[in-house]
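ok here's Cyclic pyranopterin monophosphate synthase:
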Amino acid sequence: MADLTHIDADGRARMVDVSAKPATVREAEAEGRLIMAPETLRLALSGGGRKGDVRAVAEIAGVMAAKRTAELIPMCHPLMLSSVKVSVAPLGDGSGLGVSAIARTSGQTGVEMEALTAASVALLTLYDMLKAADRGMEIAAVRLVAKSGGASGDWQRA
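and the structure:
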């Protein structure tokens, strides 16, 4: 198991110093699901509900959240993101909506937290906009799918 790098020699929390690390292209993808009743899914896909196109709003919310990750996650480095893409689509089994978020930068530290934040906020936005129709929805399986770049190399969920 790797050492907790956010703890200094005195046992205090600190932001990791990445100034000596080379800048490289880094990318991360995260995903999650919002499980809902079939009628709620139909409403979300129609785009014509009282709240409009909930998928488009969630995608924008995810991009905006990725850009503010350092304000939300303690010790997370503020990054200049070169791109963030958030996609909301129906799950293949018809159980709800899936969210995919891809964050990219050329920097000294990775973008896993930005991708995870984007996916999480997109899911929360969907929940918020659809909760009047279905309070029993469930946010599930928010997870890192893949990351590339940096000293730790590439990683892909099996």
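+1. The mean pLDDT is 93.
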